[in-house]
Model the fold of this input.
Amino acid sequence: MALPLDGVRVIEMGYYTAGPVAGRYLCDLGAEVVRIEPGDGDPTRGAGGRASAGWSFLYGQNNAGKQSISLDLKAADSLQTMGGLLAQADVFLCSFPPEVMARLHLAPDDCRQFNQRLVYCGVSGFGLDSPPAQRALDMAIQAQAGMMNLTGHDGRPTKIGISICDDLAAQTATFGILAALVERDASGCGQLVDVAIYDAAVWATEHRWPSVLQQPPFPDQLGNSDPSEGVEDVLRCSDGRIAISLPWGGTNSQLSALLGETDGSVTPSEALEMLRRWASTLTTTRAVTELEVAGVVCAPVRSISEVLDTSEVVAGGLLDVPEGGMPAAINSPLVIDGQRLRPVGPAPSLNEHDPGLWGRWGSREA
Amino acid sequence: MSDNESSPPTPNGAGFLWGGREGGLEAFQALKIVELTGERSAGALTGRMLTQLGASCERLDIGDATTESIVDDASEQVRAWREELAAMYGAGKRIRQQAQLDDLDSLLDGADIVLLDDMGVRALGGSEKLAVVSSRFPALICCQVTGVGEYDDAGGSRATEFTIQAAAGVLGTTGHSLQDTVRAGFPVGATIAALNAISGILAALFRRQRTGQGTRIDTTVFDGLFFFLGTFITKWLEAGIEPQPVGNRHPVIGPWNDYPTADGSVVICIATDAAWLRLCELVGTGPERSHLPGWNNNERVANQDEIDVWISEWSRTRTSEDVLSQVDQLGVPCSRLRSLAEVLDSEQTRNRGLIENAANGARIARLPFRLRRL
Done:
C-alpha cells in the first residue's frame, strides 16, 4: 500500500522516548527514518532487559522499521558527513538538549546551510530558548506541569503509569513536523519546529483549566471522577473491579429497575452508592452483563494480560505476536484507507545500514 | 472562564507562530473542514487544532446528547465547567444549527476534510457510510476518531474516557497499589486520540498536495492508549509477569520517585549511569552502601526499595528548596509538585505563551509547538 509519507527522508538523533517515538510515527506513515547512534549505541537498547539479541522491547517499540548508522559526532569529519545526510533529508528530528546540538554545530542556524528546505524539529524539556541547565525527564515534567497533582486521591500526587509527557511530546513533534512539511511544500521554505515537553504537558491539561480557575474551584485531585462528564467511580465486585460512568441527567428506567427503584427519582450519585452494594456480591462478568443490559456505560478494570486478549487488540491488529517469540513492536494507532499501519521491520541493529545507506543516498567518503 | 486581571499575558500575540505569521499557516488558509462531532470529544479537539493552524471549520450541530441531558442534579459549578469547555472546544468554529444529513453531498461541497467522532459516525449511519462518502469525493480526507471503533468489548460507542482508560489498561497501571489504582487526572485518552487524528490528517494533506488523492483515516481512543503501554506489556510478554501499578516509579528506568523533604516532597529522576554516580556522591553512600555506585540501570530498578530508603533518609532532613537546588546543580531532573493553578499562573507558562484568548472569549491552549521559517 502506498503510504502518505512515501519518499520522505528523516534523520533522527536522540535517546529514550520523545524523539524516537516521533520518528516511529513518521516511519509508520511511510517515511525513511535513519537513526544516528554513537559507537556504543543508544543506551535505550539495554533498558529493561534484552528482548532480542541487540535491543530491549522498549528500544524495539520506539525504533521499529528504522535504519541505523553509527557516527562519532565528536570526530573531525563527522560534521561533513552529517551535512551530506541533511542535504538530502526532508526532516531533521533531534531530541538532545539545545546546547548539545550547538556544541556539535547542528543547531537550527547551522543546519540551514546544508539544506534550506529542511524541516528541523528540536525536542527538549523546556524549549530551544530555555536555560542550558534545565533538564527534563517524564516524571519531573508530570510534577512541574501539574499532572501529578491532578492524578490520585487522598492527597497523594500520583504519576500517570505510562510515560505520558514523553508520549505527548512525541505526538506533538509528529504533529509539528507534519504541519511544517505541508507548509514547506506550499511555501518552498524550510521550517523550524520547537517542541518543549513542558508545553505539551501543560497543553494536555486544558480540559481541567476551568475546574481550577473558576470560583469556587474544584480540587486538583478528583480521584476516579470527572464531574464534567457525570458521576464516575470504580465498583468492587467479588473477583475484580468495574469502571462505571453515569451521565448527569438521572437514571434510566432499566437502571432504576435493576436497583429496585420504581419511581425513577434516584440521582446518579445515589445510584452509584446503590450500585456499590449491588456489585459487591457479583462477579465482574455478571455485573458488566447486567449493567450493559440496563444501558449503563461500564468496563472491567483490566490487567495488561487481559487487555492483550481483547478483540480491540487481537481483531484490531494492534499487536502481532509471532509463534514462540516476541513481537517486533505494537502496531500504529492509525488505520489508513482500511489498513492498520505496521512497522516495515524490527528495530535496526547498531550500524546495520552502513554502508548500504551511503550507496542509496550517495554520500560519505569511507 | 472569563478574562480578568489575573489572566496571563500572551506575549506572542494571538497566534502561536514565530516570525509574525499570526493567524495560522499559509498552507492552511484555504482549507475547509466539516465536523460531525459532539461538543467536547477528541474529534472536536482535532477540529479546533486545525482552526488554530489557519483552516476554517464548520461544525454541524447534530445534537449533543451528553450536553442536552444535563438536568437539575448537576451543580452550578459543573455547569460552569461544561459551558466553558464547550466554548473552548468550539473556539474558531462556525456552527450550523440543526444540520440535516440527508443532503450530505451539499454539506460536503467544497470541503477538504470531514471529521467525525462516535456521534458523527452514528448520525451518518455507520462507518461503512464513510467509505461511501470517501469514494464519492476522491480528494476528500475523511477522518473518524472514536472511542473503541467497531469493537465492543469496551462498551462500543457508548464507552467514555473513564471506561476506556479501564478497558485499555491505563487505570490498572496508574496508582500505588493494585487495589487502589486511579484514572489519569485529565482526559489522557481523548488527548492522545486527537493528536493521532491530526497527524493522520496532516500526513494525508501532505500526500494530497503531491497527488491530489484523498485518504480515509480511522483511529480510536483505545488504540492511542494501547500504543503507549509498551513498558508494561514487555513484562508480561517476556517473563509472564503481570505488571503492577508502579506508583511514582518508572517500570524500567530508575531510580524515579517522589521523596519526602522537611516541608513537603520532591520528585527526582535518574536515567543514566553518569547521573546516578553524581547523585551517589551528593547523598553519600558510606561504607555500608558502597555497592550502590556500581549498580547499572537494571540493578537499580530491581533494588529501588533500598535506594528509596537511602535517598529518603537524606532528603527528609532538608527543605524542598535545598534538595532541588543541590540535585539540579548535578544536572539531574527534579521538580516540586505544582498545582495546576500555580502552573497556569507561572512565569514559565507565560514566557512560553501557552495560553491564548480566543475570539469567542474562551481561554484556550495554544498549539503545543512553535513554528517559524528556518
About this structure: Chain A has a mean pLDDT of 90. The first strand of chain A starts at residue 9 and ends at 13.
